[in-house]
Structure prediction request, 148 residues.
Amino acid sequence: MRILVVEDDQYKHDILLNFLQKKLNNSTIISAKSVSSSIKAINDELFDYIILDMSLPTFDVSSTESGGKPQGFGGVDILRYLDSLDYLGAVIVVTQFEKFGDGVEEKDLTLLRSQLLDEFPQILKAVVYFDSTVKTWQNELSKVIDLI
Prediction:
């Protein structure tokens, strides 16, 4: 099984990676940290699962790259790209934010979850709220993976 983890926060990335390695121990896990690097990975390989953050930089942040414009809905761009490819795998959004966007575009997690599940019913399996202080996200993510 091949899994793509799209996450720019190193702490959250490491926790997710550790969880997935234990849960799906015979899997190959590839990481991407931005919208552009995730699209490149999707073009290069086929993935059974994609664990997707919602808020992402445009490019990978490095000592020479600022990451470009932060995208509060970068995960939506990736979902739309996958949808255009007729992606056959499963996507699970794992986010640590309860609100997205600002001003008129601001959405809470409940509304975002509903809209995403309506727009991407074939590929999006769940939107999981990540809070490193409790195990709820692990239980929810584990249940979703077991059902796929």
Observations:
- The beta strands are 2-6, 28-32, 49-52, 56-57, 70-71, 90-95, 99-100, 107-108, 124-129.
- The helical segments are 10-23, 35-44, 74-84, 109-119, 136-147.
- Residues 28 and 98 are 30 Å apart (CA to CA).
- The chain has one domain: 2-147.
